[in-house]
Amino acid sequence: ISKKLRIVCISDTHNAAPGQGFVLPKGDILIHAGDLTNQGSLSELQKAVSWISKADFAVKIVIAGNHDLSLDPNYALKHSTGWAVVPADSDVEACRKLVADGDFVYLQHSAAVVCLPEHNVSLRVFGSPYSPDRGKQNWAFQYSDADAYTMWNDIPPDIDLLITHTPAFGCCDTSAHWTEGGCEGLKRALVSSRPQLHVCGHCHEGRGACVVRWEDAEGECAKTAWEDPGAGNKKMSLLDLTGKAGAALE
Questions:
Q1: Which residue, 159, 188, 156, 148, is CA-closest to 171?
Q2: Where's the Calcineurin-like phosphoesterase domain (predicted)?
């Protein structure tokens, strides 16, 4: 890398756009870690795709989340209670074309290489919209606990950047809705893949960051939580890894 990269990470905007509850800081890479909408309707996705496509970043990477129903090719009503929205077939086709044609890299449990020539760097990225099925809700992109380890075995071993809608267990997974917000299977997969950066969403109360150090063979060695000045309010969470605005997070 010839100069510093600034990565702006957001998730769970649920139909909000810049100027409607948040402001996008400047950066080189924009990452949206899912839940662009509330229910994945065509009008909702048109709004989300429009503002993300117009955002001024060299690279933009987007995944879906459990609320983006129309983007899940296997979506079905599994429960008689809870969320019960069924996107129209015509809208589903239009929604999937929208994200495929958007001015960003859309990943759906898939990998890509993104290039930033001005920084003389290429990054290997894997992105996935899936999250654990925790309760009787008809969400999109769900998997059972029994399938968790198989699901995350799909993460390539040599990636630089991992984007998942769900957090891993024990890191940024505080939730008002679930006792265990994160996924143990994903946590184990991280021991093998060890990306330089893992970006997630889903658990709103878990916003922030933590730094994980790995042992050579045994996996997680130490985890350092970051005290988020924006927690509990609407301030932006700004984490500086360079030390330019204070002591760097090592």
A1: 188
A2: 5-205
Distance CA 28, CA 84 (A): 38
> Distance from CA of residue 123 to its chain's centroid?
16
Q: Are strands 197-199 and 142-143 parallel, antiparallel or unpaired?
A: unpaired
Spatial CB neighbours of 110, under 8 Å, sequence gap ≥ 6: 126, 127, 128
Estimate to the nearest angstrom the gap between the alpha carbon of 127 and the chain centroid. 7
List, for residues 139-162, the tens digit of each pLDDT value: 899 999 899 999 999 999 889 999
Which pLDDT does position 248 carry in this prediction? 44
Token representation of residue 22: 């948040």
Give residue-wise pLDDT tens across range 166-224: 998 777 766 666 666 788 889 889 888 889 999 998 877 667 777 777 776 666 666 66
Residue 66: which H helix or E strand, with range? Answer: none
Q: What is the largest CA-CA distance in the chain?
A: 55
Instruction: Choose among 132, 128, 129: nearest CA to 111.
Output: 128
Instruction: Judge whether 100 and 106 are in contact, CB under 8 Å.
Output: yes
Residues 228, 124, 31, 173, CA torsion sign: negative
Residue 123, C-beta contacts closer than 8 angstroms, at least 6 positions apart: 113, 114, 115, 116, 160, 161
Residue entry with tokens 């997630």: 200
Query: Above 50 in pLDDT, residue 134?
Result: yes
pLDDT band at 101 (very low <50, low <70, confident <90, very high): very high
